[in-house]
Design brief:
Layout (H helix, E strand, L loop, with lengths): L1 H4 L21 E7 L2 E7 L10 E3 L3 H4 L8 H7 L6 H13 L6 H16 L2 E3 L11 H14 L10 E4 L4 H12 L9 E7 L7 H4 L4 E3 L3 E4 L2 E3 L4 H4 L3 H7 L1 E2 L12 H10 L5 E7 L4 H4 L4 H17 L5 E6 L4 E3 L12 H16 L3 H11 L8 H10 L5 E11 L4 E10 L1
Parallel strand pairs: 4-8, 5-12, 6-11, 6-12, 7-10
Antiparallel strand pairs: 1-2, 2-3, 5-15, 7-11, 8-9, 13-15, 14-15
Helix pairs in contact: 7-11, 13-16, 14-15, 15-16
């Protein structure tokens, strides 16, 4: 394991040097377990020890770890109940579990990334959290869902725009979307999916909005191989021109592709391969008419259309949710006070998407500069640019109201013929 490869002698080990600060990208949630108040640490990048928590009163010490104070400084603030060695051991415990932004953490993170890049497999991040990870339980879970929720009529479609919302809140939407393609038997499935994490690796992907993985994706209900010939269709000289990267680090903790695979494995019994492509942010398109990113997207889209547009064995999935709004996402008012405005904006987005006209979609987004953070814009815009004029029909639209956090996410699906 990567955590074992990181050298423990690189753990923080000084009384006088500044203690590394707590990582700013960690989320902390109060929980109660066996009657004890705890602080739970959630690491979206999966560097820290999973399910790591501390007693709630440890927050007193954590707030003092600002990257400036040393153990000698902290001892001066203590009541004498702990020794310098006790405090050092506690700091090293935090460091070893990936809580501090330290030299050890940086080494640990790089080991984890390299392990993933060198592996032939992408192992599901969402199994056992968003849905059962045991095959028999998962089969029952999905069978029950398809028996309970409304279906769409199967159609001879070319593409599907569908959510990647957590199935625990959006299961009926998945059933409505994926039941529409259950009679199809494509051999190659392109997945254009929102990249939630490529921005964390700016040096790698600043000039590469399209991130391709060639790994086998392992899901509890079956493994899916990636189509290895896609790279052969592109000379390395063209990678920069069309913004394609085969460094798949951004796929490691991503969920937007694997949630679609969960349902493909359930509805299809034939063999198929995937071309999993994460699409980074294309916000530049909203602010500039002739940006570099737009040129890359148009060139990449032209390549998709010319190479695979008439391929009868190819099908396209577009993975994206709609609006993200409320206090969790940076708004200063609760989500439920924004429902009407968000629904009106989503309706325009869905109608523009279903029109098959990328100019309509871009115009609509430019009107508001993506005020409600529609994460499905980039992959859908790329697809429509490749298949301008394709006919779409809206299948469904839903909203998840996360009341306890005064936030919400909307999502829906469009079928393209």
């Amino acid at each position: 394991m990567a955590i074992l490869k990181a050298k423990l002698d690189n753990l923080f080990n000084s009384f006088s040097e500044p203690i590394p600060p707590v990582r700013l990208d960690l989320q902390q949630f109060p929980i109660q377990q066996d009657g004890e108040q705890l602080m739970y640490f959630y690491d979206s990048l999966n560097y820290a020890t999973s399910n790591f928590s501390l007693p709630a009163d440890s927050n007193t010490v954590l707030t003092l770890l600002d990257g400036k104070r040393s153990i000698d400084d902290l001892i001066k603030l203590s009541t004498g109940e702990v020794s310098k060695n006790d405090l050092l051991n506690y700091i090293r415990y935090l460091d070893e579990n990936g809580i501090l932004y330290s030299a050890y953490f940086k080494q640990l993170a790089e080991h984890i990334e390299q392990d993933y890049e060198q592996s032939k497999y992408h192992i599901s991040n969402t199994a056992g959290i968003s849905f059962p990870n045991k095959p028999t339980e998962l089969k029952d879970y999905l069978n029950n869902a398809f028996a309970e929720f409304e279906h769409s009529e199967p159609q001879n479609a070319r593409a599907l725009f569908a959510p990647h919302i957590d199935p625990r809140v959006g299961l009926s939407s998945y059933v409505k979307a994926f039941s529409s393609i259950r009679s199809l038997t494509p051999k190659k499935v392109f997945i254009l999916a929102t990249s939630h994490y490529s921005g964390m690796y700016e040096n790698l992907y600043n000039d590469f909005p399209f991130i391709v993985s060639e790994k086998t994706f392992q899901m509890p209900n079956g493994s899916i191989n990636s189509h290895q010939n896609f790279r052969k269709m592109l000379s390395p000289k063209k990678w920069n021109q069309i913004g394609v990267s085969f460094n798949d680090r951004a796929h490691r903790v991503e969920h937007s592709i694997e949630l679609h695979l969960l349902f493909l494995n359930h509805i299809w019994k034939h063999d198929f391969e995937i071309i999993p492509i994460l699409v980074g942010g294309l916000d530049e398109l909203m602010y500039s008419d002739e940006s570099h990113k737009q040129a890359q997207m148009e060139t990449f889209a032209a390549f998709l259309e010319e190479t695979y547009g008439n391929d009868p064995e190819a099908f396209f999935l577009i993975s994206g949710d709609l609006s993200h709004f409320g206090k969790k996402f940076g708004d200063n008012i609760p989500a439920n006070s924004m429902f009407n405005d968000v629904k009106d904006n989503d309706r325009l987005f869905m109608q523009a998407g279903a029109s098959g006209n990328p100019k309509h979609l871009l115009y609509m987004m430019k009107e508001t500069y993506d005020i409600y953070r529609i994460c499905g814009f980039s992959p859908l815009m790329t697809f429509l640019t490749a298949f301008n004029g394709i006919n779409g029909q809206i299948l469904n639209y839903d909203l998840w109201d996360e009341q306890e956090r005064e936030s919400a996410v909307t999502y829906g699906s469009i079928l393209f013929n």
